[in-house]
């Protein structure tokens, strides 16, 4: 009796109940592939697939398993394996597998695996069980001490269910097991409710109700909760009021005749400036607008003189005709009338500007708009002698009653005042270790100004000299800040000393409280205290913490 031939195990064909089952071999492993997972994670996944393939194929011979491992892994893995030492004999399958694992395992970056775990978020169409399975797979390479707790936290923070998140934050006993049960219930009930509420498609058009209508004035949804946003606004297309351009049905307004003057205000904001206020200048266009022929960088062009302008503007067309001009970056912004977006500038440059009679140096800002016109500011026009200002008289009237009051109470309105019968006491924390900081160097060119400022403060009795024998546990350095008028402002760096000051909190009255107290009042006075901070005298017992070291 002849024996049945052995099945072709190496080719992945096995016989189960006389039925031939074809098993696809695992693909080659590419250790150089740039994918989202780490090398160690990909190798562990591949070796699991390979061993399942071996078991399903019925291969039990260790020599055959080792050969199949190196063959299926691919040529790149075989190159790595040949460089390893103590890889065993041809029959040592477990040794070969362990050597490859030891090679790929050190390349696992635990910090990166944890980062991937923290970045995982539940997708909109992903069920909670699917998200949980994905997190469980990611947690295997993170070596968490308590994987269930970390998965629970990630579901709470990155899950799509707001109800589960709120319940978990409210109930500390709400653990992962409860979260999964509730999540399945929510998803099942949502699916069932959607199935119940589903409409028959043939009735969709009959039952469709347009819940929101479009406003004919602003283009938004109607009715409005408040006043229509287009009320009182001008249309930039037709020039009429109470509607926006996107719903305008009128014809574009005609260009105004040249004889009619049009004023286009531009709001100028300079981020380099110390002031928080905004400047405005007006470009006046009419047939009577003064224009002048000027030469900048050997190129002549016509420019409009605007006595209300604060900057010189050159359009893109004019600038492109100039050769060899390098632009510098600028942060200045100009807003045209009723415009939401600022006028864009390519940059700025400084150059000489010439007329037939005079030459001046000015800064020019280059607008990105072509053929928008060139503008000469009032300052530049004055330097070129194009305009002159004549001040006939400056009058300042005062009420006779005010003059009488100032004369009668001259002491009150002269010098620096001081709060009477009250001194400021600081609550100093004595447990804090005193800190004596060294003096900070003051630039030599402002030393004389600093000395004058300190003498002025001492003369006004704002500061005083410390007695020679008095200890100085707390010392803070001074800072000299230049002012726009050329003088300096003396400041003290009290940050470390402030750490020892105990805060005393007082309730701040609201506007309603003040309004009730002012009920029935007829006369109101506005007082502006000069250097109000220096008008509060510091108690003698609190002065030692405010000592500054001066040279």
TrEMBL record:
Annotated GO biological process: proteolysis
Region named Disordered: 249-277
Alphabetized PROSITE patterns for the sequence: ASP_PROTEASE, RT_POL
Source domain of life: Eukaryota
GO-annotated molecular function: aspartic-type endopeptidase activity
InterPro entries: Aspartic_peptidase_AS, DNA/RNA_pol_sf, Peptidase_aspartic_dom_sf, Retrotrans_gag_dom, Retrovirus_Pol_polyprotein, Rev_trsase/Diguanyl_cyclase, RT_dom
Protein known as: PREDICTED: uncharacterized protein K02A2.6-like
């Amino acid at each position: 009796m002849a024996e049945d031939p052995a099945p072709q195990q190496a080719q992945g064909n096995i016989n189960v109940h006389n039925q031939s089952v074809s098993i696809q071999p695992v693909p080659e492993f590419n250790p150089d592939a740039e994918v989202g997972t780490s090398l160690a994670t990909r190798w562990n996944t591949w070796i699991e697939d390979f061993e399942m393939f071996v078991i399903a194929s019925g291969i039990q011979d260790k020599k055959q398993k080792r050969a199949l491992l190196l063959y299926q892994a691919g040529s790149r893995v075989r190159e790595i394996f040949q460089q390893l030492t103590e890889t065993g004999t041809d029959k040592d399958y477990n040794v070969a597998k362990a050597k490859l694992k030891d090679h790929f395992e050190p390349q696992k970056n635990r910090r990166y695996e944890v980062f991937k775990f923290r970045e995982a978020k539940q997708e909109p169409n992903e069920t909670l069980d699917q998200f949980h399975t994905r997190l469980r797979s990611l947690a295997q390479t993170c070596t968490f001490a308590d994987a269930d707790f970390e998965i629970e936290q990630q579901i709470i923070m990155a899950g799509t269910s707001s109800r589960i998140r709120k319940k978990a934050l409210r109930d500390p006993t709400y653990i992962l097991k409860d979260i999964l049960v509730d999540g399945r219930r929510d998803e099942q009930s949502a699916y069932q409710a959607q199935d119940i509420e589903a409409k028959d498609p043939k009735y969709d058009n009959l039952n469709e109700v347009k819940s929101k209508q479009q406003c004919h004035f602003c283009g938004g949804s109607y009715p409005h909760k408040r006043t229509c946003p287009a009320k009182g606004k001008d249309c930039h297309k037709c020039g009429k009021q109470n509607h926006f351009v996107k719903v305008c049905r009128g014809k574009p307004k005609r260009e105004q005749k040249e004889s009619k003057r049009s004023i286009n205000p531009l709001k100028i904001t300079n981020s380099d400036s110390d002031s928080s206020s905004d400047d405005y200048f007006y470009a006046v266009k009419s047939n009577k607008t003064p224009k002048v022929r000027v030469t900048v960088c050997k190129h002549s062009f016509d420019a409009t003189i605007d006595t209300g302008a604060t900057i010189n503007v050159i359009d893109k067309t004019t600038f492109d005709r100039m050769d060899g001009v390098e632009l510098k970056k600028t942060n200045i912004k100009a807003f045209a009338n009723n415009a939401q977006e600022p006028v864009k500038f390519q940059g700025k440059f400084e150059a000489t500007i010439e007329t037939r009679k005079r030459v001046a140096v000015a800064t020019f800002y280059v607008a990105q708009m072509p053929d928008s016109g060139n503008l000469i500011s009032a300052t530049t026009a004055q330097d070129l002698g194009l305009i002159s200002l004549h001040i006939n008289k400056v009058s300042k009237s005062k009420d006779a009653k005010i003059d009488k009051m100032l004369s009668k109470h001259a002491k009150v309105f002269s010098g620096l005042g001081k709060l009477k019968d009250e001194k400021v006491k600081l609550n100093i924390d004595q447990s804090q270790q005193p800190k004596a900081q060294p003096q900070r160097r003051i630039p030599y060119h402002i030393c004389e100004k600093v000395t004058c400022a300190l003498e002025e403060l001492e003369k006004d009795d704002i500061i005083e000299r410390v007695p020679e024998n008095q200890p100085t546990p707390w010392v803070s350095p001074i800072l000299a800040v230049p002012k726009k008028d050329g003088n300096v402002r003396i400041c003290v760096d009290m940050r470390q000393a402030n750490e020892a000051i105990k805060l005393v909190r007082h309730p701040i009255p609201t506007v309603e409280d003040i309004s009730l107290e002012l009920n029935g009042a007829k006369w109101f006075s506005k007082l502006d205290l000069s250097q109000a901070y220096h008008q509060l005298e510091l108690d003698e017992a609190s002065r030692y913490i405010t000592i500054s070291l001066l040279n």
